[in-house]
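Posted in: Structural Biology > Protein-Ligand Complexes

Title: Requesting predicted complex, protoporphyrin IX containing FE in pocket

I'd be grateful if someone could produce the 3D structure tokens for the following input. Sequence and ligand are given below.
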Amino acid sequence: MWFFVLALLASPLLVFLYFELKTSNHRRRLKKFPGPTPVPVLGNANRIGKTPAEILATFFNWWYDYGKENFLFWIGYSAHLVVTEPTDLEYILNSQELIQKSTIYNLLHPWLGSGLLTSYGSKWHKHRKMITPSFHFNILQDFHQVMNENSTKFISQLKKAAAGSSILDFQEHANYLTLDVICDTAMGVPINAMEERDSTIVQAFRQMCYILNMRAFHPFKRSHRIYSMLPEFADFQRTLKTLQDFTYDIIEKRVIALQNGISTTEKDPSMPKKKLAFLDALLSSTVDGRPLTRKEIYEEVSTFMFEGHDTTTSGVSFGVYLLSRHPDIQQKLYQEQIEVMGNDMNRDATFQEIAQMKHLDLFIKEAQRVYPSVPFIGRYCDKDYTINGTVIPKGTTINIPLALMGYNDRVFKDPHHFRPERFLDEKPGPFECVPFSAGPRNCIGQKFALLELKTVISKMIRSFEVLPAIEGLYSRDGRLNTYLGLSPGERLKREAGRHKYDPILSAVLTLKSDNGLHLRLKERVY
Ligand code: HEM
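-- Reply #1 --
Done. Output follows.
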């Protein structure tokens, strides 16, 4: 009897000792990296912050405290190495082996399965090779038409919403536009998100992205086991089923249409159109000499739906928000629009004209430097890796904080100054600023994304003068009202003067502003 009581009392201690011993070797091997001191059981989880905004601020503070070098922190007994050193990033991002994503990506599995973003090993290699031609120049030109059509619809909606100098939360509006673009290009089915905001499928896409982002840094909800016991899990499952049914249904209809050899668009307008490429390309592709299974097709289409929607919402929203705070830069971009577009400022820009907009290109680079749409990416060390002479042991998670890298003053002079021309004179190296990542696992949709951002922002500049939410909020010295990355004293000083319309950056799977991105639009009259 006493033996059992003692065993029961001792078991937590034994578990604790087991983990401490198991981790001590790992700690010893990583001891060269600075970082906050971990406490037993929690590691540094007690100090990282509770909300996504607090967590991002903590990352910036730690990075500052450790001399803007790589640093290490612990969540429980799992080691997280934060890498910002360009030569180390070159090794990591160029590696053909270190391609397994970190555990945070597991959150995406119920919806995306193991599509291109989440898979690794030979499946990823084969699918990447198969999908790459889908982003060919000629296909992008077809997609440009979809982007133009949807941007035109977007502008006319905004004209109504902005009437009477109303203050808009632009982040909210952009979300429906990008959803329409990606649905039409990935599946060939317009879901009219801009017009039917409350429809079940539109809400399901929005809800799923919200849930994923919300769970990403939640201490308990991140665990599937715990999340599946919470009352909100039922809602998640309903949303998931709506998305799965919708996507499988489109795939099925397209397969039948192809089998019947019918050109579908004329017969049924709800069917994929001829220009559709992602789904079409997947249906006619083979891997290891066999066609893709329905599940594989579902995974890749859903991956595009996620990656191609939440990221571009962030990119368009922060881009237009920056126009509102930096009128001189907006004026320069407007001037470029006049030069490229000539007399008719209301027409669609062609693919070639978009390519001529050099200032717009620099502006988007600079916007992605300060507000990268994907704030963090992560890798998991499935074995020991020797990175520039240092062994990173198996089991370590490598975090690459794209959100911090743009604020490295060893690379970017006065990083809080918003200055698109810096990309001409400072010329950052290939691993110093990587909003689309780099190397073999870089963003396969980069050209698509840039085309979409340029198409929408070019039309916005020609249609409206973008103004801050209230008159006094212009940046007078060209500097950002983002205080992360400043010295603690400077940050506190500047934050004391924060306006309610200054964004509160919140880094989850994509970068958002917790309090929206507010601005006004004044229609341009020609
Ligand atoms: C502003 C817009 C975008 C940004 C900043 C962005 C950024 C990124 C980044 C940083 C990664 C690397 C992720 C990682 O290593 O975990 C990535 C991967 C990926 N992106 Fe994008 N992305 C954007 C838009 C798009 C679009 C529009 C699509 C599709 C149409 C897309 C499809 C993908 C896919 C499929 C991957 C996984 C690639 C692989 O692992 O082989 N992205 N993106």
